[in-house]
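Lesson 9: reading folded outputs for more than one chain in a single document. The general rule is that every protein is listed as its sequence immediately followed by its structure tokens, and records are never interleaved. Here is the first one.
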Amino acid sequence: MCHSNDIAGIDDYNTTENDNHICELDYEFNETHIIIEANGFPNHDLESGPGCCASAQDHVWMIPLEPTNDTGCDPTEGSEGCSMAPERGPIAFAVNGVSIYGPEDGPGGDAVAGQEGKYEEDRQHVWLGICHGHSGPGGDYHYHADANCVHWHADEAADETWRDYNIDSSRQVSEHSPIVGFAFDGYPIYGFVGWGEDGETREMTSSYRLKDGETGYNGIEDYEFISGMGDLDACNGQWGTTPEFPNGTYHYHTTWVNGEGDLGFPYFLLCYRGVAETSNADAGQGGGDGGGDDPDCSGHGETWGPGIGPPPDGCGGGPPGGQGQSSESGLIAIPWFKSPPDSGAVVLSLLTLAVVTGSRFESSPIITESASSTSARDRAGIAL
């Protein structure tokens, strides 16, 4: 989605120079998974926040081509029996390859609640920048909420910059929101707006609220799930139709409000409806200085890597000493390594990239024509 040669370099507004960062993302697939390599820079200008500064990462994300429900999980009743998303670190990834984190920040509070003035964070200076993102240890830029800015673009003719992005622009209920990311179980994460049980377009609401007397200072434990209070279940998702899945699929939503009009904790997701690819929790931590003995990262392209499998623990997404970036020239390359299978998940991935590309960047004819790519093109309404 970052593949136009016309893209200006990405700037971190917390530095004094124009950083000219480059958003890079590659993907390929095998018989069971799609594998995404990304350097962690978004397709928009950013604010690193107190954890300045964002740096290139070695993200390797793997999601199943065909998500499988966790049979022990019934999120309509609660999160018991479901695999919980990690409290810290990546829980999903955005369509630009950037990490999506859960609600908790480093000190353990709800980062969004603190940002919105629900409590005063006195343990560590924390604030969220553009699109509710910031950088953490190791320079890993990530979102704690929203991420809908991946589909927004500044109107340069009106002298807009990325600081003019407003979350309310993504909450308009005129149409169903596009996909902003994917959970580690392979199910898509849509923006704020979806279709209710009556088929009407509406902003989706969370079914979590603060416990009596709590503020979010203690993070996740300050919240309780009230079934039916909002539109979504305990994982912050629902089964239903979407523009890409007219026959229905499980999917998550970003949320800004709950069913009572208060903050929409957990903002992305809190548990996984499907069977999650657990290697992502480690593979998304590349780029930082882990300390200790260096892991054995040999075997890239032979025993691990795109199309083979995730990296060993402690290794990033590329060969030892590298940043896991595309070998193609330019700002981004998203090549096909073979014709894609006729899989709804792969079509969905292509569609997402196409829609995001159309929102700001020029699309590039680099994807091989096939039944799946034609379907994606027709649904998106733009040529890939």
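And here is the second record, again sequence then tokens.
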Amino acid sequence: MKKDIHRVISTFGDRALIELDNKIVPCLIRTKKQRIVTNDFVGINKDTKPILITSRVERKNLFFRQNNEKKKLIAANLDNLYLIIASKPRFSSETLISMLASALKENISVSIVLNKIDLKKETEKIKETLGFISPFKIQSRDSSSNFYLEPSIIDGLNSKIVFCSTKFTNGITELKESIKIYDDEKLVSTVAFAGQSGTGKSSIINLIIPDAKIKISSISKSLNTGKHTTTSSKNYKILDKINKKVWVIDTPGIEKFGISHLTLNDIKRVFPEWEKINSKFGNCKFSNCIHNLEPGCQIKKLLNDLSNSHQMQLDYINLKTRLKIWLNLLSMINSKD
């Protein structure tokens, strides 16, 4: 007999909403030792009032943050994660890279969206800061330059940034189309929007899904939690003309993103330039060098060489900033490597 499996729309405490027969239905969570989060697939008992969630299907991935033993689940079973940033409030490079590393660890591909581009001066400044998200590279100024270094890429990160403005709706159509065509071979796909508070995630969703405000109100009423549902991720469905479904998840605003669950290798994945630098300029003296205070570190040597070149001060600043972010992230993890 085929098990009755349903998608979780949102959760709050021991309560959840699921999709059942194309309707949103409230349930009580009664799973043993299985935490439930938005976009989980669950088994239910329909013979009770209210309906009980009794089991959870194994997840293909889970996006979460963790500070020591405290683990905050955000959403499960994602195909793509859109990281939303804006010129106001000023975004944290460390927070963005932390979310990126956490998503890639779970094999979730990532795209970056820059909102509020109507704030032109602030946007130009933030574009410079965005450069620190990308791996460090040295532009070739001279074909004979000893400093030339080929660009690195972060596997799993979409290199194309989507620029948009919810105030004038610039870029919203492009963003909506990128969501709908994320995976042409799938009839159902799921994406999530995540970012710091105030970046405009919910405003973007209101433009992509016109009746989102009504659905938010419906979710609040069904869970009987009022405004407190803003602390939980919420799932919305887009249905196109060929009946292809795309689920879009709005996640709570994030101020700090704990990465206690990550390892040294997870952080290395978003700093691929270290390997490129070692390949170009030689290996560090110690194989376990973390490019901090160890003698014979080639990354620190390159930084020093760049600092002595008046023509390469921008490269010096970029490498120094990336190295600072790297060391700050290492201080946040409990690595066993």
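What the second record shows: DSSP finds nine helices and 13 strands in the chain.
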